[in-house]
Design goal:
Strand content: 25-35%
CATH topology of the largest domain: Heat Shock Protein 90
Helix content: 25-40%
Strand order of the largest sheet: 1-2-3-5-4
Shape: flat
Radius of gyration: 32 Å
CATH architecture of the largest domain: 2-Layer Sandwich
CATH superfamily of the largest domain: Histidine kinase-like ATPase, C-terminal domain
CATH class of the largest domain: Alpha Beta
Distance between the termini: 65 Å
Number of strands: 29
């Protein structure tokens, strides 16, 4: 018998033996260990057990968990979970008495890198920097903690009752707390890995408030700047700055970027960036404020994260009349960053893109200056979006801000990617020369191009008709064994006719616009351009509809047994790099092909609108069966829109109108919840 076979025949009998077998990757074996239950985490169906040799972490293979402080005999095996991680699984737990719990060990964040503390009951003290709910599992919440020995993460188990809202964690950012829970030193088997040490709390009752959070930014300790602009914490290392608690600064708002980065001029001309917490409205440029947040630095500027603010009772500082440095086209980038960062600069440049469909950032304008692209933040003057166009030559003035990557302690320096000019108002942008409008030659080229596209689309329609006829004949020639198959063929045929009719209507609209443009070409070039622009929008919609029609005919989404997977397959191509979350709790077998196809078309169109028009970074799709109806919603974090005055078919936008007509045919209703800069949520209810 080999040595490995002898090992497998002998059960592991100590907590240290279980830990060693799991984390050193030994072959699977059984165990029988007697020890005291030190901690129970119901959310993971797990508990920690300790004996004279140390601590170990066990997952139950059933829902039965032993009580804390009980003396128990755990029997089980070493195996691999569904994520491929080796674990110790307790198949049975027998309570044999009452154990004695050890006192929690008082540790710091740096101790959580020592394997000795893994799975031990510990107590830690720190300042709450942020409280966030888990986006995947609503029963878990996370707190980002700051302490003198480093930063760490606290996972709090707070189960959500059926039909109830997520319970609040009874702490606020800025509070000093003492936490008692299980230290997580060695990597866990979860799919997500955290970049900070972690402690797991079995419930919110494991949080003891030592000092409440400041009720007002004025109550936070102040970062003092002298007449030279040097802060009393300026010479601390980035690591020590990141471990500080909530701090405040007082100064004048000189610029606001992306509606949340508030640049504050403090004493001595130093500029501090306050990154506002979620839901906090920004102040006005020129207002004197007190801002409080958690200090960090990218080695160039002091930042206050999760910041809040209130108006200062001090008188606003007199305007210093700071000089605007007009930068020459030939200025080197390093000179801009070295000499003008944090100062007001001026550029004579040409607009490449304005916020809209062609721009990457919905709040930044792209300009060409000195042969390079420079972002211009116009979130403080959104009316410039409609006043300016690509090709315009402008003079822009604003605060010069560095573009840097997120800096980590392990990096040498943060990566610098040029600079951004932050505009404070409309008066800081002056039009020097407008871009040329339509010329006769361009109109001729555009008309010829649109005619060519129309011919191509006509050929595509004919090809699509032949594909539909061929598929229909193949379906009717096939042997039909069941009534369900006959209904499926009928539904697909009706779907094909519906697609064909919608494309034909688009082409009729294009023909009307082209006819109007041709008539206006000789007498009014501007009016002709307007008709052509509308025709171009309609053609874009027609082209997109054709692409989707062909994709539906060739795809297999309707044959998928899981509606969530079918929705993800249909929607992912149109959201591109945006994050997509799908939770559709309706069984595919309860839906006809016609209803399933309508749902896929609706969510695809709504998701495409959220990314294309709203610039959404995250799209959430959810659905459920309620009685005889199906309720679904598409929620996004984009720029939103005015639900009462959104563009319609007259402006070349057919998306929402088409959705309303499709839902009406199914006996349903559409609800729109949206507003500027608030994202959007569109709900649909249809009959099964």
């Amino acid at each position: 018998m080999s040595a490995g076979a002898v090992f497998l025949a002998v059960a592991i009998s100590s907590a240290a033996g279980i830990k060693e077998a799991v984390w050193e990757g030994r072959e699977a074996g059984s165990f029988a260990v007697t020890g005291t239950v030190a901690g129970v985490i119901a959310g993971n169906r797990s508990f920690t057990l300790f004996d004279d040799t140390g601590y170990c972490y066990l997952r139950t293979t059933n829902s039965l968990l032993p009580a804390k402080a009980s003396l128990a005999v755990a029997r089980g095996h070493i195996g691999v979970d569904r994520n491929g991680w080796r674990r110790a699984f307790a198949d049975s737990v027998e309570i044999v008495g009452e154990g004695v719990l050890p006192e929690p060990l008082s540790v710091g964040a740096s101790d959580l890198s020592n394997a000795f503390f893994d799975n031990r009951l510990v107590t830690m003290r720190g300042i709450v920097a942020a409280v966030e709910g888990d986006e995947i599992d609503p029963d878990w919440n996370f707190m980002v903690m700051r302490s003198k020995t480093g930063n760490f993460l606290a996972a709090v188990y707070a189960p959500v009752a059926a039909g109830a809202a997520r319970p609040d964690i009874p702490v606020s950012p800025g509070a000093t707390v003492r936490l008692t829970g299980v230290a997580n030193v060695l990597p866990d088997g979860g799919k997500r890995k955290f970049k900070m040490p972690q402690i797991t709390l079995p419930s919110p009752e494991s949080i003891q408030i030592v000092a409440t959070a400041p009720k007002s930014p004025r109550e936070a300790p102040e970062i003092v700047f002298d007449s030279n602009g040097i802060a009393n914490g300026q010479y601390k290392s980035p690591a020590l700055i990141s471990q500080m608690g909530m701090r405040r600064v007082t100064g004048d708002v000189v610029a606001i970027a992306a509606r949340r980065d508030v640049y504050i001029s403090v004493r001595g001309g130093q500029v501090v960036c306050a990154e506002l917490d979620r839901g906090v409205a920004p102040p006005s440029v020129g207002e004197r404020i007190v801002a409080a947040g958690f200090p960090e630095t990218n080695l160039f500027i002091l930042k206050l994260n999760k910041a809040r603010w209130e108006a200062s009772s001090d008188a606003a500082a007199a305007s210093s009349g700071e000089k605007t440095w007009m930068l020459p086209q030939s200025i080197p980038a390093d000179e801009v960053l070295r000499e003008h960062y944090g100062h007001t600069v001026g550029l004579n440049c040409r607009i490449v893109a304005v916020p809209g469909a062609e721009a990457v950032d919905a709040e930044r304008m792209q300009v060409l200056f000195g042969g390079r692209i420079v972002p211009v933040d116009i979130s403080g003057a959104p009316e410039l979006c409609s006043a300016l166009s690509p090709g315009d030559e402008i003079e822009v003035r604003g605060l010069c801000v560095l573009n840097t990557s997120e800096w980590r302690l392990g990096d040498m320096f943060p990566a610098i990617d040029g600079f951004t000019v932050v505009v404070r108002g409309v008066d800081e942008v002056r039009l020097l020369k407008a871009a040329p409008w339509w010329t006769t030659e361009r109109l001729k080229v555009a008309v010829a191009a649109l005619i060519a596209v129309t011919l191509v689309l006509s050929l595509c329609v004919g090809s699509l008709r032949r594909i539909i006829v061929r598929k229909s004949r193949q379906l009717f020639r096939a042997e039909i064994g069941k009534v369900e198959t006959e209904l499926r063929v009928s539904e697909r045929t009706r779907l094909a006719v519906e697609i064909h009719d919608s494309v034909s209507q688009y082409l009729v609209g294009v023909a009307y616009q082209l006819d109007a443009a041709a008539k206006a070409l000789r007498r009014d070039a501007a009016a002709a351009g307007t008709f052509l622009a509308t025709a171009q929008k309609v053609l874009g919609s027609c082209r997109e509809e054709l692409r989707r029609c062909i994709s539906d005919l060739r795809g297999n989404a309707l044959e998928m047994a899981d509606m969530s997977e079918a929705i993800r397959t249909t929607v992912q191509p149109v959201v591109r790099d945006a994050r997509l979350s799908v939770r559709f709790a309706v069984r595919r077998g309860t839906l006809s092909d016609m209803t399933a196809h309508a749902i896929l078309c609706i969510v695809r169109e709504l998701a495409a609108n959220a990314v294309r028009h709203g610039g959404a970074k995250h799209v959430k799709i959810a659905g459920a069966s309620v009685g005889t109806a199906i309720r679904l919603s598409v929620r996004d974090d984009g720029s939103g829109f005015d639900a009462a005055r959104h563009p319609g078919p007259a402006e070349g936008h057919f998306g929402l109108q088409g959705i309303r007509e499709r839902v009406a045919k199914l006996g349903g209703i559409v609800r729109i919840e949206s507003g500027p800069d608030q994202g959007s949520c569109i709900s649909v209810e249809i009959l099964k």
